[in-house]
Amino acid sequence: MTNIEKNCFIYKRAIEYLWEHSQGLTQEILDSYLIDKRKETMNEVFHVAVFSFRDWNAQFAKSGIKEHEEEIKALFKDFDVYSFNQNIATLPEEELDELFKKAFKGSNDKYKNVKENVCDSAKFLSEFKNSAEMYAYFDTFDSTKKEERNKLIRIIAGRIKWWGPALVPNWLKDIGMSNYSKPDQHVIYIISNLGLSSVDEYDIIEAVFRIAEDYKSIDSQASAFKLDRILWLIGSKSRFYNHKNIVTFTGSREEFVEIVKAELNKAN
């Protein structure tokens, strides 16, 4: 089996495994987790950036996005990044602290980390006139090349506090930059234990991209973003978070890895 054949097998097998171990799953439900369109407005882009706190701050992640979304939307003026940068980020430090504490229900100083992250995000995004200009800049980095993807990730990580080589590509993929993926614990576990990459975050991103790129010979709509989501759904305990009372999943990342390894060994 060639590397391309192996990559295509893994992508296809991940989809099959998800279906085999899901009860109540429909194509419509699955598709809702695989939407990788680019955002039309900077409000949408900033919205995604603001709520990235769920992915890096365990205290706030526990309460979930829905509990705070409307309150934060009101406090942040519908996520208007330019208004935020001019009218909120410039508030005296104590007022800004109180606003974030109110928005994120901070019971300790952790909300200050979110404040720093969001303010940095707003400052960075406000440098672009609109989303089209932002995407045009991002596209100057050829996302089909590892060194170019890594360069953009490092530039953004250097501008936004509390983001790094996992959270920057996570945000990029969630705003429609479909050649990026988040090297979280589940994706790292599956990809590294299948012997496709080291555990280095940049190597994981490259492996996910390469698998998806090879699978495009079978499905032209394949992408690193979609494979990332499929592997995350296999590994995460928060599977199908928008359909908790509809879909149940009985598989695990450990079982998936063992099945794929056995099938690959048999094929060889």
Order of helices and strands: HEHHHHHHHHHHHHHHEH
Q: Characterize the biggest β-sheet.
A: 2 strands, antiparallel
Q: What's the overall geometry?
A: globular
Instruction: Name the average pLDDT.
Output: 92
Tell me the structural class. Answer: mainly alpha
What would you say this structure looks like, in words?
Helix 7 (81-88) packs across helix 9 (110-125) and helix 8 packs across helix 9 (110-125). The protein is 63% helix and 1% strand. Residues 61-65 have low confidence and may be disordered. The chain contains 16 helices and two strands. The protein is mainly α and 268 residues long. Strands 1-2 form a two-stranded antiparallel sheet. The protein has helices at residues 3-20, 27-32, 42-50, 53-56, 58-61, 64-75, 81-88, 93-104, 110-125, 131-138, 146-157, 167-174, 185-193, 201-215, 224-235, 253-267, and strands spanning 22-23, 248-249.
